[in-house]
């Protein structure tokens, strides 16, 4: 039979069965011998076999066509009944070995002990069309031994956010886990969204997440915390063998090279977050990927007006540990926990300490180069550019300035025309201000002074306006997944209208392109969204 003859309604010939699983994680690492699905401490194992809980009425809301294609799943497959059944956890494909991972973590700076996949279940590793194995993981598919006091479920609101943001980040060029599908369960889930004793029933949903691995810093921390060095070593050797194979055979040097590379990847990741204005919101060590991916989209948010002190997470409102501008330091703190976790394999503080110290310089260099790229400069040129950046920081804080629009519009400020009036110079940027009238005369003068310095700096490079704009527009997106846009898509989804999810997925597919038909999705946050829950404030309750 050719694929064209495939009938999606005929369950016996469905091509979903073509997915080839090669489950090296469960094959090569120790399993929990106990397969009973009761909450408990799991010792000496990397995971527990556990089945997803079947749901009442799985319905496909959205899927990522390009990710499906990468996995060898055609659109017609995605729209089949079987796809919804499989990615809601109601049907297992041959080769799947569902399991929940065991990990610990530091939450808000405190060691929390065993956490684990409390509402995520890995289905298995499937080979994508590039020959790479990808773990498929359901999020929100029921209780596991790691569910602690919670229900193992996810609501539509948080699932829409995870689905859209994973794909948006991918197309923005930010390393991330991905999302294949968003499926409603037909069941209600009770959530006290504001922790104010007014729980409500919300629609349940499941996202299928996809990544080469969902290993986190917390996986390594847990073994070390229990003094289980044999399993720590097994897990690290496994990680290097499959995810960092270029580092070579296990040895103390290899472990250090691995730690260094994890630091490098994490630095790259945070540079990207700072570039696009993404705030993770709960950057605990259990939410920090060992591959340098953005993982666990919870109370994340996007910077509208530039504010390094902003955090979307209401749970973090007092300490603001996970605020936008603090992410580079928090990443280093998390890496320090990884350093502690692998210490028993190194038995020397100094080389680990050195790598962590080097992280600061590494991050700073990467960020300086990224800032130069954002300004369309050839390269970062030391003290002068440092001063230009310091001044820019002040300019951005003079009045509420939309970060995304500011950088995008800066590309429209001419650096070739040297005799522009202040007004003409400022004109392209005015769109970025939330209250342009609030800009005082002095503010405008400060901004113009900075723009003239910037013009001079660009002229030094000899870059034409046209080239600079083209370059800047490759790193400064026109479209980001603004908090209020996701919330609008969620509000509509609650009424059964999923069209805005599809539209946002479509627009976020090409975030650096102008796409004039979607201009309204590039608009700054409207005033009604300023303090609206979901738009500016989120809780971990999802
Ligand atoms: P997070 O910081 O949201 O990634 O989650 C921290 C820990 O809580 C992880 O072990 C999660 O699996 C677990 N968790 C979060 N929400 C739930 C839930 N609804 N049911 C079970 N476990 C959960
Ligand atoms: Mg998590």
UniProtKB/TrEMBL annotation:
Active site location: 286
Residues annotated to bind Mg(2+): 287, 296
Cofactor section: Mg(2+); Mn(2+)
GO function term, MF aspect, one: AMPylase activity
Signal peptide, first to last residue: none
Enzyme class, first EC level, given as a word: transferase
EC numbers, comma separated: 2.7.7.-, 2.7.7.108
Catalyzed reaction equations: L-tyrosyl-[protein] + ATP = O-(5'-adenylyl)-L-tyrosyl-[protein] + diphosphate; L-seryl-[protein] + ATP = 3-O-(5'-adenylyl)-L-seryl-[protein] + diphosphate; L-threonyl-[protein] + ATP = 3-O-(5'-adenylyl)-L-threonyl-[protein] + diphosphate; L-histidyl-[protein] + UTP = N(tele)-(5'-uridylyl)-L-histidyl-[protein] + diphosphate
Tree of life domain: Bacteria
Pfam family name, one: SelO
InterPro entries the UniProt entry points to: SelO
Sequence positions that bind ATP: 116, 118-119, 139, 151-152, 209, 216, 296
Keyword field: ATP-binding, Magnesium, Manganese, Metal-binding, Nucleotide-binding, Nucleotidyltransferase, Transferase
NCBIfam families linked: PRK00029.1
Annotated function: Nucleotidyltransferase involved in the post-translational modification of proteins. It can catalyze the addition of adenosine monophosphate (AMP) or uridine monophosphate (UMP) to a protein, resulting in modifications known as AMPylation and UMPylation.
PANTHER family per record: PROTEIN ADENYLYLTRANSFERASE SELO, MITOCHONDRIAL
Family indicated by similarity: Belongs to the SELO family.
HAMAP family assigned: SelO (MF_00692)
Protein name: Protein nucleotidyltransferase YdiU
Provenance organism: Methylophaga nitratireducenticrescens
Lineage of source species: Bacteria, Pseudomonadati, Pseudomonadota, Gammaproteobacteria, Thiotrichales
Gene that this sequence comes from: ydiU
